[in-house]
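As a warm-up, study this chain.
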Amino acid sequence: MDEARKKTNQAVTPGPALTRREWLMSLGSAVVLSGFRGVPEEAVQEAHAFRVPLPPGLYRPSLDHLADALASDGPFVSAQPGAQTEYVRPRSGPFVPQAFAPNEYAVLRRLVEIILGEDLKDSSAKPAVGAPANIYDEVAEWIDLVVSSAPAVRKLARNLTGDQRALAVAYFGNEEPVLHLETFEPERICRDGLAWLGEESQRRFAKGFLDVDASSQTELVQAISDSRADRSTIHAGTRLFDFLKEEAVRGFYTSRQGLKELDYKGNSFYGQSPSCGQPLGFTPSASDPE
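Now compare it with the structure written out below.
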């Protein structure tokens, strides 16, 4: 009886106290992956289990590289020796698309301009040396990256081991996003959609898309946009618009200009949590903290 009690006491003896920083580090390295629900000391034990090499494509965050990125006010970050992060680097010459022929990329660039709106041309921000000339170029380059990377992404997704795929499904919460990674072909969507756009422009105006005036270009885009007369009509043109709209919005609102428009408060350190600027939805009582 006494021996059993002694073993029990040894089992529950708390380990060394953790600082808040150590506890958060344990959360980041182990708890998030494992879905752990427990006390800090147990989280440290769980963390040791995750010090084995991760499967291909999974990397732990580098706090040093993150600090460098957060401290940078410009669009480019100097890569530290041994950095695994692929930072965006300034280019020395004109942008060369990887997924589109030059004439296709010119059409893509114009479509991005129409989707995001002409008002962004009024931006007074001056681009850094080696950076895209404006937000339309930046977003178009982002879309080119997405499309050019798609075949490799599909190949990697399809070659995941059973355990790796199960981890991905658990991370997303269901299988649909994983199936999307395995099957989505944006290069085909763009190829077929741009061909449709060129043929439709010839049919309506007897000219290529870039050769018609701005109002005619907008008319063609509206015919495949969410505001088209028959939303049930799906074809190569509508699939192109859906893809470009999603990636244009994603590209813009993850750019510096887009984050500024959102008044994004992240990527900074604060002594206290910043306010969202919205009025309270209720009237606090005298006992409630303001």
